[in-house]
Amino acid sequence: MGLGLAESFAQVKHEIMLAEQTAGRTPGSVALLAVSKTKPAALIAEAYRLGQRHFGENYVQEAVSKQQQLSAFNISWHFIGPIQSNKTKIIASHFAWVHSVDRLKIAQRLSEQRPAHLPALNICLQVNISGEASKSGIALEELAELVDQVRQLPGLRLRGVMAIPEPETDFQRQRQPYRQLFQTVQALKHPELDTFSYGMSGDLSAAICEGATIVRIGTALFGAR
Ligand SMILES: *Cc1c(COP(=O)(O)O)cnc(C)c1O
Known about the structure:
With 225 residues, this protein is an alpha/beta fold. The chain contains 9 helices and 8 strands. The chain has helices at 5-22, 41-49, 60-69, 88-94, 104-113, 143-150, 171-188, 204-209, 219-222; strands spanning 31-35, 54-57, 76-79, 97-101, 121-126, 156-162, 195-197, 214-217. It has an 8-stranded parallel β-sheet with strand order 7-6-5-4-3-2-1-8. α4 crosses α5 (104-113). Bound molecules: pyridoxal-5'-phosphate. The site of pyridoxal-5'-phosphate has 13 residues, from β8 and α9. Pyridoxal-5'-phosphate (PLP) is lined by residues 35, 37, 58, 80, 164, 200-202, 216-220.
């Protein structure tokens, strides 16, 4: 408790930098996505003034309301929550990125519904890497086929994968599922798959050691929800 927003951002960025160093990654190669779900627009504005530009939201109505309040800001909005098919139209028109695509039907709808005046929607496919029943995402074995289907869709730009593993406190065990996912994507040999969206407040260093290019951080920046 008690850290101000500036201190929290500085601390998280420092942790990212240290992990990049430890892992031998290029400095600055890991982007910070600030997960602002349940947090008010005023807090997003404060983070924006600290230089943050990419924000992640899980709930469509909540996100759209904040986008309206913050329309004067040059924010890149990322949708990271579960997607119902009756929400694809609004998601396709209100976000720059969607990290949580886990079936072809959703991808097809997002592609068809992406407004023509906007650039292709950046997409990550959500992969369930710990086989947890409660979490969405495709199995690793299904990834190659879905990649081949989604990369054909004209309204989308397939960028990579996203994962939310089962919570784990041991550093080596945190790394294991990320390593498996990274290697599976590398084996597909699609150079356009340049995005690995994994790592949250509790495991961002492990994720960076295993190739994360976007870490999605909520609690460590904005406090408990
Ligand atoms: C809430 C959420 C996060 C952020 O989690 P923290 O543990 O608060 O950092 C990241 N990714 C997804 C998909 C989330 O829903």
